[in-house]
Amino acid sequence: MAVVPYKDQNENKKSQVATMFNNIAGKYDFLNHFLSAGIDIVWRKKAVSLLAPEKPKQVLDIATGTADFAIETLRLNPDKITGVDISEGMLAVGREKLVKKGLTNKIELQYGDSENLPFEDNTFDAITVAFGVRNFENLEKGLSEMHRVLKPGGMAVVLEFSKPRSFPMKQLYQFYFKNILPMVGKLVSKDNAAYTYLPESVQAFPDGQDFINIYQKVGFKGTKWHSLTFGISSIYTGKK
User: Fold this and answer.
1) Residue at 214 is within a domain
2) Tens digit of pLDDT for each residue in 95-131?
3) Can you tell me where the transmembrane regions are (predicted)?
4) Which residues does the annotation place in the binding site?
5) What is the DSSP letter of 53?
6) Does any domain span residue 2?
């Protein structure tokens, strides 16, 4: 059974995830940086640095949210970054951010379903996803869509939470994720489910080699897995 934010509702995971992010959009950036002590910024920089040798010109950022990863990717000087997300609330916050930073000529945000991307085959030089694939209703279908719209030779970079496996980080991580994070998240976001769903979805997610296996199954080649910060997060890369 799929892990969903609102267990008392009958909507599918995709609809519930969109609702959840709409509910927390205004507090998302603050909570993201606060709950990770700012280390999520370091993780994004590392992910972008792995993409740098490719010098991509057309980049697609899936589950772009408030566009933090898209903005970080501007360091590579692409011609254009297109960000897609299923949460209009998150996109609204992202667009406001782009206007304030004067970046609307470089980054375009639009509604888009990761499992049915509104783009032609072989469109993008690179695809990025930060903390988004865990929320796909059908992981294999979403990754297949990424492979479809990527140009031959293009690279996909996925940044996602993973599960530490070594003492004492495993125990500290589980305590923080199950006790501290949901409490603070609920207090600030006013959404009772959002930050309970986060640790549950991380626990259920096929991380590490399991993710690499699915990555390869849908067609990605030269796949690599980079573990970050004692295994709290991972970056997965693959080429078409």
Assistant:
1) yes
2) 999 999 999 999 999 999 999 999 999 999 999 999 9
3) none
4) 66, 85, 113-114
5) G
6) no
